[in-house]
Specification:
By secondary structure, the chain is an alpha+beta fold. The protein contains 3 helices and 8 strands, in the order E-H-E-E-E-H-E-E-H-E-E.
Length: about 140
C-alpha cells in the first residue's frame, strides 16, 4: 500500500517528458540522465496492422511490483533519482506508452541502470496490452 502510482491515462506526451527533465535542473549533483521511451509499433500480424494497444493492469499489484523494481535498482546502482511512467488505456501506434528516466552523478551508471530497469519491467510488471487492429479486432500482446 501507498506505493507511488506509475500509471498515466493514455499516451505519455512530449510536454510531460520535457517537463520531467526540466524539473531536474535544480538538482546540481546530477551529471547524467538516461531516458527510455517505449513507443507503440504498428506491427503487421497475420496481415493486419496494429492501430493501438489498450493497456490494463491490476494497479495496486503492478505499483507494488514497480516499487520492488525501483528498490532493486537503487540497491544495485548509484542513482540520484528514477522515474517510471506507464500508460493505461488506449495508446495509438507512434505514441509513447513507457517513460523511464534515471539520473546519477556519473554517466556510465545511467546506461547500465536504465537497461536493468527496462528489462525488469518487461519481464515482471503485471501490465497487459491488447493489440487493437485497424479493423477493430484485437488480441492480447505477447512481449518480445
Amino acid at each position: 500500500m501507498g506505493h507511488k502510482n506509475v500509471f498515466i491515462e493514455g499516451a505519455i506526451s512530449s510536454d510531460f517528458i520535457g517537463n520531467s527533465i526540466a524539473k531536474h535542473q535544480t538538482k546540481t549533483s546530477i551529471g547524467a540522465h538516461n531516458i527510455f521511451l517505449g513507443q507503440v509499433r504498428a506491427d503487421e500480424i497475420d496481415g493486419k496492422m496494429v492501430a493501438a494497444i489498450d493497456y490494463t493492469a491490476y494497479e495496486e499489484m503492478a505499483n507494488a511490483k514497480f516499487h520492488e523494481i525501483r528498490e532493486a535498482t537503487f540497491a544495485q546502482f548509484e542513482l540520484t533519482c528514477m522515474h517510471i511512467y506507464h500508460s493505461l488505456g488506449t495508446v495509438k501506434a507512434g505514441e509513447i506508452c513507457l517513460f523511464v528516466f534515471v539520473s546519477s552523478p556519473r554517466r556510465k551508471v545511467v546506461y547500465e541502470a536504465l537497461e536493468f530497469v527496462v528489462e525488469q519491467i518487461k519481464a515482471h510488471a503485471p501490465v497487459y496490452g491488447k493489440e487493437v487492429f485497424e479493423d477493430e479486432t484485437h488480441q492480447w500482446k505477447v512481449n518480445s
